[in-house]
Amino acid sequence: MGEPQGYFVNWTPLQLALRELRRIYGDPRALIVMGIVGLVAGLAGPFGTFEALPQGLRIVYWLIIAFTTYGIGMFAGLTIGEALRPRSLPQVLVTLVTSAGAAVPVTAVVVVANAVFMGDMPELPSVFVLFFYSLVVCLGVFVLADMILPSVVRDEAAQPPAILKRVPPHLRGNLVRISTADHYVEVHTDNGMSLILMRFSDAMAETGSVPGVQIHRGHWVALDAVRHLKRAEGKPMVELVSGETLPVSRGQLAGVKAALSTR
After folding, report:
1. Architecture, CATH, for domain 162-261
2. pTM tops 0.85, yes or no
3. Please, where in the chain does CATH 2.40.50.1020 lie?
4. pLDDT digit string (tens) for 17-60?
């Protein structure tokens, strides 16, 4: 399913899935593909919908199916996949379990849609048939994702983070940390610091594929820039390779530990 490339907050499997879901529904290309799939299916009328529904209603039905099942299937599958990742299971097993988990809510959506549009409440054997079809589709989607995502991640990793485009050329380099400074953010690289007028959350979003973690309300650090996590006067701190120390808030501590363990 591809390794997560950055951490802004205390990411849990649920939060990672939500982040990916927002990315999917915010990508015009993905929305266009879902729309085309729904429109084509609405015109073709597979699985008996051609006879059961008039064309206009059939198109609406399939558009709802396309936009809803893709999102809910990806959400469930990514949540399960991220939860299984620390167990170091064989990828084939992870893909099978992920697909089966995603097929459950997809089947539920189809059952509800059939009940609303056709007044059809399927019996248990029919539900199992729907689940089988959903499983095959989900399996195909996640197998393709496993094949495509690694190359996408490599391509993204080769691009410098967008935040560096805001930094003067002579200060650009490896991203070290980002910190708040009133209405500005301090962008620190291994070549110096630049003060930029923007929101801290927007600055974190522009770190792109640089693996990092938000350690405090006003601090984000690149994982490669962290020497270790320690305590000073009973308070958690991170010491950077540069020798700087920054505070870690209690709410972010678990996420910081998890992020550092992936290095």
Report:
1. Beta Barrel (2.40)
2. no
3. 162-261
4. 676 777 778 778 888 989 999 999 999 999 889 998 999 999 99
